[in-house]
Fold this sequence. Notes:
2 domains; 15% strand
Amino acid sequence: MKAYVFPGQASQFEGMGKDMYESSxxxxxxxxxxxxxxxxxISDIMFEGxxxxxxxxxxxxxxxxxxxxxxxxxxxxxxxxxxxxxxxxGEFSALVASGALTFEDGLRLVNxxxxxxxxxxxxxxxxxAAILGLADDAxxxxxxxxxxxxxxxxxxxPGQLVISGSVAGVEKAVEVLKEKGAKRALLLxxxxxxxxxLMQPAQDELExxxxxxxxxxxxxxxxxxxxxxxxxDPEAIQKKLIEQLTAPVRWTQTMQQMIxxxxxxxxxxxxxxxxxxxFVKKVDRKFPTSAL
Length: 292
């Protein structure tokens, strides 16, 4: 069984998509359609913008989404996933690639998501930290005992978990986790506490847009972040997508469940093509990985 997996924020790179635009009519049409939908030429920022410009949430999220979908569309009729999953933002790419959302609806939701998250960051400042070399349950226990908002946010792979919350909460947790034996506990250069309760204003804003969007049955099972389970029911997919902004990204559990369900090969679609392959190898090295 072949699974296509889609990266999220932080997989962007300078010049992303320029080669695709120049070599593929399919990609070029998709980029121009995205420019029209967004109301600005995101393709120009992707092709010529600086790393700083690409790091803006309002640019990064639609850029990574667009890059992934263009990669998938360029495969054409040979794109036949047996399962899909996406890391955080990548879940929207997975939904479009599997036919649960149209490209137009997916891009509009991603754009609204990015703007809502940026607004939430300004309303409720927060941060995140990567914790390396400590068991998940040990990190969970520390977070539970910090008298501030701080939760496990991204279960990326065994030995790598990102925590998220208030600046004070994350800083306290980092100190304690170092004492508990974490190999590294690094504050991340992010503008907000993604996948934590501090994103509730963004979730509330996005919920209405998601509820007003039509979801279809996907062509294959999609494994969603909130529970790492295979899903095919459009209503359930919609509900879990609403919950995603304040819930942890259970990527380790997603990879483990996909393997348990029979996936034997993972293909990363879009972004730098390395991040999710690396996570798969940390879960189980024997499964082949590649990138489009």
